[in-house]
Amino acid sequence: MILHTRKRYFDSEHYFAHLENIMTNEVIGLNLHDCIRDIVLGTVPIANVRKIITGHACRNEFDWEATIVSGLKYFWTDLNQDKVRLIIQELRSDNKIKQPLLNNSNRFPVVFHNGTRTVWVDDENKIVWSDAKTKIL
């Protein structure tokens, strides 16, 4: 099952099934900014995060700080900054933030695919990779 946190079904059974899946299953995140938001807001428990595969390439603490500052300025403006930093620190300490761009400049998860924004999946086989998409096109 692909889990979409940005496609809401507020008045349907699909939305409630989606909430149940991300609240009870181990999931893989595909976008650092959206995933951190979902964790901070409690939509996805941090204990359920198997890993987050990001399109960032943070090679050192300076890169991480720049990514966090940018996120706080543009994506997490309404969130508690300390909580954002603590969650990122915990995920990094647990080696749950994966950065494939550090190894292959062409490979990162595609969040927008076929008109749908996918933020969380429950199976790595459901990830559409940028290099695979390029080959298809």
Which descriptors would you attach to this protein?
alpha/beta; two-stranded antiparallel ribbon
Report on the architecture of this protein.
This protein is α/β, with parallel strands linked by helices. Helix content is 41%, strand content 13%. It contains five helices and seven strands. The chain has helices at residues 13-24, 32-41, 61-74, 81-93, 130-136, and strands at residues 2-3, 27-29, 49-53, 97-98, 112-113, 116-117, 120-121. The strands form two sheets. Strands 1-7-2-3-4 form a five-stranded mixed beta sheet. Strand 2 (27-29), helix 2 (32-41) and strand 3 (49-53) form a beta-alpha-beta unit. Helix 2 crosses helix 4. The longest helix has 14 residues, at 61-74. The radius of gyration is 15 Å and the shape is globular. The model is unreliable at 1-12 (pLDDT under 50).
H/E element order: EHEHEHHEEEEH
Oligomer: single chain
SSE-based structural type: alpha/beta
Number of helices: 5
How are the elements arranged and paired?
Layout: E1 2-3, H1 13-24, E2 27-29, H2 32-41, E3 49-53, H3 61-74, H4 81-93, E4 97-98, E5 112-113, E6 116-117, E7 120-121, H5 130-136
Parallel strand pairs: 2-3, 3-4
Antiparallel strand pairs: 1-7, 2-7, 5-6
Concise structural overview:
With 137 residues, this protein is of the alpha/beta class.
